[in-house]
Amino acid sequence: MEVIASSGRPGMGAAVALGLLLPFLVASTVAGCRCDTGESGDDRASADVTPGWDVSAQAAPKRVGMVWIPKGVLIAGTPPGTLPRIADQELPGVEVQLDGFFIDQYNYPPEPGAIPQTGMTQAHARAICEERGKRLCTELEWERACKGPDNRSYDYGDSYDASICGTGQTDALAPNGGNPRCATGFDVRDMHGSAWNWTSSPWGRGSDDQRVAVRGGNGDDGELVGRCAHARPVAPDVRDATIGVRCCAGAANQAQVSLDVERGSELAYRPHDPRIAARLEALLPEEITAAVAGRPAADQFRVERLWMWRPIGNEELVVGGGCAHPPVHDACGVIVARMVGEETLFVGFVSSDWWLPTVGEHEDSRTLYVYGGDIGGAFRKPMIYAWGRIREGDKGRKKRGGWTQPGR
After folding, report:
1. Residue 77 near residue 90 (C-beta atoms within 8 A)
2. Which helix (H) or strand (E) holds 289?
3. b/e code 336-348 from CB counts within 10 Å (16+ = b)
4. Which of 32, 174, 272, 291 has the fewest Cβ atoms within 10 angstroms?
5. How far apart are alpha carbons 46 and 51 in whole angstroms?
6. Which of 206, 309, 307, 306 is nearest to 265 (CA)?
């Protein structure tokens, strides 16, 4: 059974996935499993009849060095509007019912103080788990253990804090327990800030190659990488000094990520649409609206140009360029927004100063140039897509023979 987001458009995947998922996800056991889960027959029977939304206290089965993750609902991926988000890699907040399972409390070897073992292929990681009566986790099981019972964005909560798990670094691996506050709501430790973990799950995001999903780990952009929804594809025969394993046990959940990825022209000019223009104008930042407050309608900011920008798969942004006309000189720029149904979400505003802006592509689809002008003449500056947000680069000046580099 797969969790399917069919179109990749914000908000559309969840309904499709739930309709397919719920009839098929049922409690199950592994026939002939020789693993000692610590569950008695009465425990298993009780777990089977308890509704998934029941939060009453239940006796959790025990297994040394492992944490029991009870059955419950995982909000898989990242809902549109929650940032940062990688639209072509993450489900849009799909509800997935998962049965209970065990997971190692620490990276392998699962002992406090141990340095995680890395440099292994997926097959080697699988063998390590199976030799101990365990198995590789699926990536959705891993995500459930990370998000905890409250479906948090990060191991420890919904707001990013680099100090808790030591994320945002690419230095030596942290020893197990080296960041004592880095614990999930289920008390699974060091899921971020140390080794990446092999999973048993194929990548399944618009690709039919043989790569698999790895979870956890660390990276330069800690706010992005440190999220429980984050994953990256790796060929199964790769030996990487940052990839290790954290084993699971018990019956494997069958739900998998299968995400359709929709792409299109990276940048396309579109005819002026007064309705879209009005929705963008309602999102103007205060420094623009304040400059023309109380002035005639002719002086107000008006969107005159529209573009559609697709920086990555499953992400479509509307860019509107225009000017306001305060007393001294025009105040111009582009508004960037994401339209989700009838809702228009502000993404960013990049000033083009005194000139009506134009927008041009860069060699990377995640970067556009905004062209404008000021007292020093023509300039351009990069507008960079940063996983749902916009970052504004420095100005480069128009000179004989081309453009200077920003800051020169």
Report:
1. yes
2. helix 286-291
3. bbbebeeebbebb
4. 32
5. 10
6. 309
Q: What is the dihedral of CA 96, 97, 99, 103, to 10 degrees?
A: 30
Region 20-42: mean pLDDT is: 35
User: Which ranges constitute the DSSP H helices of 2-109?
Assistant: 13-21, 41-49
Which residues does 187 contact at the CB level (< 8 Å), separation at least 6?
67, 105
**What's the pLDDT tens digit per position in 335-345?**
999 998 889 99
Q: Is 59 helix (H, G, I), strand (E, B) or coil?
A: coil
Tens-digit pLDDT profile for residues 368-387: 999 999 999 999 999 999 99
Position 345: which residue type? L
Q: Quote the tokens at residue 144.
A: 């459930």
CB 98, CB 140: distance < 8 Å:
yes
Q: Give the type of residue at 57.
A: A
The tokens for 76 are 């898989």
pTM for the whole thing? Answer: 0.82
Q: Which two tokens stand for residue 217?
A: 């780990």
Q: Which residue, among 74, 256, 233, has the nearest Cα to 152 in the 3D structure? A: 74
20 and 258 in contact (C-beta within 8 Å)?
A: no
Residue 200 and residue 120: Cα distance in Å, rounded?
Answer: 14
pLDDT at 5 over 80: no
What are the strands, taking DSSP E only, across 37-147? 66-69, 72-77, 92-98, 101-104, 135-136
Closest Cα to residue 257, out of 82, 78, 28?
A: 78
Pairing verdict, β 377-386 and 367-374: antiparallel
Q: Say if CB 115 and CB 38 are below 8 A apart.
A: no
What φ, ψ does residue 180 adopt, rounded to 5°?
Answer: -60, -25
Residue type, 36: D
